[in-house]
Amino acid sequence: MHYRLGFIGAGHLASSVIRGLLRTKFCTPNEIIASQPIDELREKLQRETGIHVVSGNEEVVRQSEVVLLGVKPSIVLPVIKEIASQIAGKLVISLAAGIRLENMEPLAEARFLRVMTNTPSAIGRAATAFAPGNRTTPEDVAAVTGIFQAIGVVVKVDEERIDAVTALAGSGPAFVYSVIEALAEGGTRAGLPNETSLKLATQTVLGAAQLLAESDSSPEELRNAVATPGGTTAAGLAAMEKLRTSEGLIAAVEAATARGREMAKS
């Protein structure tokens, strides 16, 4: 068999990318192969997606055109050493946070490239950035752009900025879920049933984000369009300012960025 894409590791992020590529019809199930050492998870992924899932990494590398590393950061380098001879000359895309190209490239003669994406890739709504390596070709850039454009928005960055992308895009969904959770709790405290409040909070965030994405206006302009002096929105914004809500979100991105840089040094 010969597969278009091979995933080494199929955890939350990698499986989200796989599901998104299938959902958007970038690939058919018979064009993807993945490795998953845990029997239960391997069977579950194969049953739910229809892709070919195996237990070993060597089969994935041998049978795929492009290899994506979806393993935990701590084992990226050991995995590369394990498959070094097989990935020579291939495009290898690392999805791991904190592992630098300068640490990967000496281990194998592959064309390495780093990508940071997020779990909304599963529904074709990913925010993705990629950083080319020293051996990356224009064809590789086109290939990775095509893959990740199929599941969302993709931008090219220098590797020195990838930690900020990790914090903003990679960790960002967790921050947004916290915002939705807080909005829903506010609705519940104001008297709404829990389920109703969560449904409204979720749709409010979804709608606001979509409006911003499709508008030429800035966040500030759209915010001002909702808030009228002395009105309910103004009262809510004043409470957020008093509690320094914006500063908390900024601090979350900064802390996640700092942690990514620490991981790169370890």
Distance between the termini: 39 Å
Structural class of the helix and strand makeup?
alpha/beta
Query: Approximately what portion of the residues adopt beta-strand conformation?
Result: 15-25%
Helix content: 40-55%
Looking at the structure, the CATH topology of the largest domain is Rossmann fold
Counted beta strands: 8
CATH architecture of the largest domain: 3-Layer(aba) Sandwich
Taking all Cα atoms into account, the compactness measure Rg is 21 Å
Quickly name the level 1 CATH class of the largest domain. Answer: Alpha Beta
Silhouette? elongated
**Sheet having the most strands:** 8 strands, mixed
Mean of residue pLDDT values: 95
Name given to the CATH homologous superfamily of the largest domain: NAD(P)-binding Rossmann-like Domain
Order of helices and strands: EHEHEHEHEHEEHEHHHHHH
Strand order of the largest sheet: 3-2-1-4-5-6-7-8
By DSSP (H or I, 4+ residues per run), the number of helices equals 12
List the uncertain runs: none
> What count of domains describes the coordinates?
2
